[in-house]
Amino acid sequence: MFSADLFTSFIQYVVLGLMLGGVYALAAMGLALLFGVANLINFAHGEYIMLAMYMTYVVSLGFIQDPVLSPIVTVPVFFLIGVLTYLGVFKRLVTAPPLSQIAATVGILVLLRNLALTIWAAEPKAPPYTVFATSVSLGPLTIPLDKLVATVVSIAALLILYFFLERSRLGVAMRAAADDVEAVSLMGVDTNRLFLVTTGISMALVGLSGSLVMTFQAVTPTSGLLFGLLTWAIVALAGLGTVRGILVSAIIFGVADSLASGIWDPRGREIFLYGLFILILWVRPKGLFGRR
Amino acid sequence: MFRQKSALAKSTALILVAVIVIAAVAAVGIFTIGLPGAQQTPQLSEVRVGLVEPLSGAYAVFGNEAKQAAELIAEEINAAGGIKNLGGAKIRLFIEDSKSSADGARLAAEKLVNVDRVNVIIGAFISAHTLTMLDVTEPKKIVVMADALVDYLTARGFKYIVRLPPKASVHGATAVDFAVGVFQKNNQKIQRPVIVHFDGLFGEVTADGIYTRLRDLGIRPVDRIKYPTDITDMAPIIERIKAANPDIVFAVPYYADSIILAKAVKSLGLKVQFIAGAGGTGLADPETIKAAGDATELMTNTYSYDPFLPTEYNKQLVQKFQSRYGKLPTEAAGIIFYTLWTLKEALEVAGKTNPNNPLDGDSLMAALMSLDLQSGPAAETYPAGRIRLAPNGDNIYAQAVVLQVQNGKPVLVYPFEKATNSVIFPRP
Amino acid sequence: MRRGLVFPVTAGAFAAVLPLTLGLNDYYVFLVTLIMLYTTIVVAWQLIGGLGGQLDLGAGAYHGLGAILTGYLMVYHGISGWVGLIVGGVAAAGVAFIIGYPSFRFGIREVWYALSSLALVLILQKIFLLWTDVAGPLERYIPYAEFDPIFMRSGYKTFYYYVTLALLAVTFIIVHQVRRNKLGLYLQSIRDNEEAAEMLGVDVRKYKLLALMVYSFIAALTGGIYASMVGFYHPILFDSWISIQTVTLSIAGGLGSFWGPPITSIILLTVQEYLRITLGAVIIGLHQVIFGVILIFIILFKPDGLGPLLDTVALRLGLISKASKRA
Fold it and tell me: For the whole model, what pTM was predicted?
């Protein structure tokens, strides 16, 4: 009897982790795009996600109660933010040495984190209630509906992105740029515009994932750091290449996250995730990111 | 050749000038800032009272309420003529922000002691922060009137500290006594209690208080769950509580986590007969009720202050506080009420018994120890109505009360004889 | 007097009497000591950042580790803080090695070291939050002593001031020597062109690791001094803000410049403390927002920081010799 309960708990955490992984994949995808296509190191990626989470919170207080519906607002707004960030900062950074990119985006990190601290204070914020507040029962497992919807939306978005990258002209140009920027520009593609759009899409993904992740967690000014390191770790494991790679990598991290905080200790979560990251550095270094 | 010589002369001249300037500034510095008594001694036209509270950061909710209460009371004392036995000296507040961190509290204490030259410090609400202040105040014999609850503050042999509110373990024990009483009234006995608390110093000690009391009554908790202070997702905690199948949950939260707890209980549909808080922070105060909505309905918490205490002064004060600040005063404000008034009484005594140096640490401590207040504003705002300090600095007559959220408002439900409303039990 | 020594000697003399200037007031001396502790980290950072070309964000981790370990040994084993400092330093160097080793291989992009050093701050914080025997979520208090130089504990902040001053001076000397000798040349060659250096047979990884370990050792020392000074320790001392502050001040001061970072550090930190005293908690996080803006601004518009400017001014004033100028 006891072990059956434990087993059910375990499966419960794994399922929760799989769902979490879907949303994490969406969050990491934006980073992978920017890093892969524009070769831009955005250290503040996590902070943008945090910003999207806060925006979801504000929207949920004001107009649309449910975080799953707030992408209606956050996605276009963040696309715009992406465009503005590119024009304001990233454009100059694309040609700068990596150290400068890191340093400048660390500056953005600090800016956004403390802006959040000033505006919303240190307490965790979460949307009041969600329409999908019920749970679906699958045998002995309880699957919260709101989280399920978030995961489904994430997967759908990833699928759309995949087809975009494979089929559309812009998508193909982006993938080509990831391989060889010079060749792409030689072929007459305006790399400046390409990077602009890439940043926009990257941020739009941030907006979407930020909203969806609010079904799982509350947001604090330190959330940015957590998501930043997490998405970079996912990118590290996946390597730059395919949407599928990111998804698999994100699911691994999602399940690890859920198991660590459920079975061990909520604090163990970070140790596990970042320890995994450092392990990756030790074990699979060059093959994974020796690409350029 | 010339260039070398002039460069040499230039550098030497520079050094000479620098040394003279430094020596001059050093001399001035020592004479104005350093020597004891060199700084303008506060004329006994004022008593400098330092207040260290978290005005920003995670615990700002409490600190700001404490600040509001302090300003209100200081005003009242001064308007009524100040400290008569000190020639009408006025209370002057020096308010510092501890920034909700231990080193922030310490820095604040350093400033108050070394720069503002306060005579006494009230603070710092968070027990762990108060302990760091003692590192600064004890050596300089500055009395600390603590509005923090952890037992250690008065149990470690610190000489210049007093604490009027009931200590953390008393809060824990009160929660248990209250709960046992409630169950008894409904012809039940507590058999499967679960304790949930945050892992900071205050959470631990209060939870220990609950645990000890339960054990003394022969009841064994089924589970004791600790969570990180900065937790954002309580779903796993609720799961664990469910798994323990308790008949009552004792919770010791701070502020933000109490909101998350209440909401999680509601959204995950935790069914338990009763949820009793301990420690006075979160769950049943106006701010939490506002933030968590009806998720806090029927929850209780223990408090060091009873806003419904029916004495004349208290009723008047509560109304004044409410009309000025728009909310009911609870824990943070309440403790400040009677602490500041007690200080006033002690100052009066010190002024009489030690007119040459009334504000000295030893003199002030002696004055505080000599008090036995059974009337007056201090006693009238204190739950048990009587303030008298034991040698270690605790109030002998310390007592906590319990408030329950009924229809979105906190009401007094314990001690049962004094209750304004009867307890609603069990939870639906 | 030799040109190059004028500035350091004058500054040193001023620093030596500063506590007296402040009237030995514990509060002011405390603030000044704090500024000097952080400046020490900034100077040491030049080894890994300025010379090694790595954007290290681990200062918070090493500083915190020094604080926790030194504090732990003092509280639970009654071991003198001096010993604790060394233990903390060695531990920090060891941990630095663990993340430096895989990241410093040829061809590995800088972003991975930057990320793992930042992750280190969080990992260590969580580890020590869970490790209740050593730290845990409760603050641990170091026993008070009015003046116990052997134990390394004192109620008078002036004691810590001079300890820190000594550490700062030693750090200056170390960094200066490294810049001038082989290690410094190797590091610079790596920074300027890693491929070429590798081809010329420079052991890239070894020299970066060396620089990293010296720097992390020193950062840990600052942590130990801090813990003893404030009288308690807690995993909250693993603070990513210290990492970011160090990087910001170093970059603003100018990577590769010797005097730029410490001068910038002292100036900006003093301004920050002054603002904090006067404005209080008016707007929490404001000074950090300003730091963020400074960082972005400098990278975008003046990537060399203030260093070259300061160096030129100092050269004109005859305060430093050409040898001290930007490497």
Answer: 0.87
